[in-house]
Amino acid sequence: MSPIDPRLQEALDGERDAGELPADLREACARLISAAELLQTTPRLSVATHVMTEIRQIPAPVQSHGPLHRMIRWFGRPRAVTVRLRPAWTLALAAGLAALLLLPSQQGSIPTPRASEGIANFVGHFPGARSVEVVGSFNNWSRGSLHLNDDDHDGIWHVAAILPAGPHEYMFVVDGERWVPDPLAGRYVDDGFGAGQENSVLFVRPAAAQP
Amino acid sequence: MVNDDADVVARVLAGDGEAFGILIRRYEPGLLRFATRMLGNPDAAADAVAESFVRAYRHLAQCRDPSRLRSWLYRITGNRCRSHLARRHTNDIPLSEAPAPALAEASDTWEVIERSEQVALVERALAALPAEKREAFVLKHVEGMSYEEMAAVTGARIPTLKMRVHRAREALLEALEEVVR
Prior knowledge:
Chain A is an alpha+beta fold and 211 residues long. Helix content of chain A is 28%, strand content 22%. Chain A has 2 domains: 6-39, no CATH class; 67-209, Immunoglobulin-like. Chain A has 5 helices and 7 strands, in the order H-H-H-H-H-E-E-E-E-E-E-E. In chain A, the strands form 2 sheets. In chain A, strands 2, 4, 5, 6 and 7 form a 5-stranded antiparallel beta sheet that branches. Chain A is elongated and about 80 Å long. Helix content of chain B is 70%, strand content 0%. Chain B starts with a helix and ends with a helix. Chains A and B meet through helix 1, helix 2 and helix 3 of A and helix 1, helix 2, helix 3, helix 4 and helix 5 of B.
């Protein structure tokens, strides 16, 4: 394979007028353009019927619920808090989490996860963020269903939720638009969409196995 | 634009699953063309595109910027094509040696037959390229994407993509000249 004249590359990249090229390069340019045009022939195929039949049999993707629905779910959902191990810089956070852990027990209102469920605690350090939520495989990647809170405005956001036991992929959505993996997650997996982006992975232990 | 991608995505996510058909109609021709050029086989391309649409539907809530849905769909389809190529069994016919599809029919005019032969010839030259260069050439010159959009589709950096396109052009030109001789 021999390199071709850079002027031809520039013309094909739209950085140079092809009309300015010498005759032999103009011919090569025309040959490549006509080859590309031949490849633009669209196959006489359709998968639309097959795809629509298939997607009618799977659950509809869901974005988020309205505020009223979220409030009803919030009141209806059992809530509890546990602590995931974090690095030392989160000592203050650990103290806060300990307080969160103790507070509900004093009120005697800790809901009990079922044997097949466990308690997940999502914590992130996002100073200056206006909102942080978590989306993941457990909520069909739907925004609006699990918001983190930063009541003391120290940039440490937190939420606890009862989830089915097992592994869950998730991401944080900061300020409603920036998707970021949890920098403190124990594991990451490729998100499957190329571009090298990764989802965080959390393994929720079943309640029966938690101390 | 009425019914732009973000609107349609919002409709689907609000529960109107049938609205996904709008997106299929909108992007099916381009995705089938892209996959066919990548896989060199219309049936495999149809499988890859169907799988991609179903995958896109399942994960639609994960589409981080619905206004750039086209890039997202091409990215999913590109990944499916790479998976198909990786799964190709060692005793499969290599892409570059696969027989050209029978495009011409008895009732076709001479011009149609000649064009079909030209298409088959260029397809064979394209199939001889490594997958990354083939993908770069197709996205640039067949699908008409900018290097920025190609970067969003492939995850590769723009200088890398430019290099792939340049190398693909060189190889294609050489292959086409060989045939003319």
